[in-house]
Write a structure and sequence with these properties.
Layout: H1 2-24, H2 34-49, H3 64-72, H4 87-94, H5 107-111, H6 128-167, E1 169-170, H7 174-187, E2 194-197, E3 204-207, E4 213-216, H8 225-241, H9 243-256, H10 261-283, H11 289-302, H12 319-329, H13 341-359, H14 379-391
Parallel strand pairs: 2-4
Antiparallel strand pairs: 1-2, 3-4
Helix pairs in contact: 1-2, 1-13, 2-9, 2-10, 2-13, 6-9, 7-8, 8-10, 8-11, 9-10, 10-11, 11-12
């Protein structure tokens, strides 16, 4: 339980820092606003990987082995810890003569007898221990079930995307392919791009990262040449930026931290910023911000209101996202400007520094939730020592 609590606090610290960095660098990183968000979500996954590790730790902790050795070290019968222990007597009482069958349930009570002189026995059991165990089991069970549901949702979304690709029709129009090659050259896209017609799509979407595929709506032939060029430029911008892989990684973070509202906010904001960054990159090669905004606005009026299948929502653009893009693109500052290399490195360094600090914020004594406890002395030694002290 302590491990989950510490992990949630670490995630909160990193998420808040990432949001702050995103807000501060927003006006300097028009086409790279996704960088602090993607870096923060990656840091969240990294925190989860280090959650059950005792390294690194910036909080001082004592050496549990030294403490255990001090507790279990033999002392003199007189009770003075600084006196020289009687080694021969300790060796004799450590090996009792005869048979001494000690019940298993009595060992912890002889080592640490209950207060008030109450005899130890199997019936001396408190109600707190079982209740804590049951509550912990329920928490772990519910968390595991939630993560399982999240994994099913992500796998189902990827399967739905794959289904759309399999049921789509490849487009071989020469003019269309030439336009794609021209846009790839202008935008510096080195990956080959396959384009297909998908009836389930409202406008267009890009899926895959190793072999990216652009899915066009079956109504693409009704678009003007400017509209088609803007849509293709937008999708190739996604491929150039590697947005689909970043989206999958963000969904993994959401699955691992389904309980955290900041993680959900980061993933949703990343999706929107990916669209806006692709708009800004595409506007640079299609004739300027105003021409791009006009073409996208006209497509918004033609877009179908039929929703995409539920499992694919996490990986494909929706009508709501498209309309929000149009609303935000009215401010042309979203379609201009870029980020310098210094700004990118400063952003990554800031997120990495906060992540490294958060990883080391662990309780003393090892991994979160672990406490160094000295092993109690054996019951035989305790009984024998008390007997020897009485005879003396």
């Amino acid at each position: 339980m302590n491990t989950l609590l510490v992990l949630s606090l670490q995630v909160t610290l990193v998420a808040l820092a990432g949001i702050a960095v995103s807000r501060v660098t927003r006006k300097w990183m028009s086409t790279s606003r996704t960088l602090p968000l993607a870096a923060t979500l990656g840091a969240v996954v990294l925190l989860t990987a280090f959650a059950f590790s005792s390294w690194p730790s910036w909080i001082g902790r004592s050496d549990s082995r030294t403490e255990s050795a001090e507790v279990n070290a033999p002392t003199s019968i007189s009770g003075d810890p600084y006196a020289q222990p009687n080694v021969e007597l300790f060796a004799q009482i450590s090996t009792p003569v005869g048979t001494f069958d000690l019940p298993t349930w009595a060992i912890p009570y002889l080592a640490s007898p209950p207060s008030g002189g109450v005899a130890a026995g199997p019936d001396l059991v408190t109600d707190e221990v079982p209740s804590v165990g049951i509550s912990m089991n329920w928490i772990v069970l519910l968390a595991g079930a939630a993560i399982l549901v999240g994994l099913v949702r992500v796998i189902g979304g990827l399967w739905a995307v794959s289904f759309f690709v399999r049921t789509s029709r490849p487009l071989k129009e020469k003019q269309l392919l030439e336009q794609i090659d021209l846009l790839r050259a202008e935008m510096g896209c080195t990956q080959s791009v396959e384009i297909r017609e998908c009836p389930q799509m409202a406008t267009a979407a890009t899926v895959g990262w190793r072999k990216p595929v652009v899915l066009l709506s079956d109504s693409w032939q009704t678009w003007t040449s400017d509209q088609l060029r803007c849509v293709l430029a937008h999708e190739i911008a996604h491929i150039t930026r590697g947005d689909f892989l970043a989206t999958v990684a963000a969904q993994v973070g959401v699955v691992l931290h389904f309980y955290h509202p900041l993680v959900h906010w980061l993933a949703n904001r990343l999706r929107l910023e990916q669209e806006l960054a692709a708009d800004a990159l595409a506007a640079q090669v299609v004739g300027g911000s105003r021409a791009y905004l006009n073409a996208i606005g006209e497509l918004a009026l033609k877009q179908s209101s039929e929703p995409v299948g539920w499992p694919a929502h996490s990986f494909l653009p929706t009508r709501r996202t498209f309309l929000r893009r149009i609303e935000m693109l009215r401010d042309l500052k979203f379609l201009s400007g870029g980020a310098s290399r210094l700004a990118k490195w400063a952003t990554l360094t800031s997120v990495a520094a906060v992540t490294l600090l958060a990883i080391g914020l662990r309780p003393p004594g090892g991994a979160p939730g672990s406490t160094a406890q000295a092993a109690p002395p054996s019951a035989a030694v305790v009984v024998a020592t008390e007997g020897a002290a009485t005879q003396a």
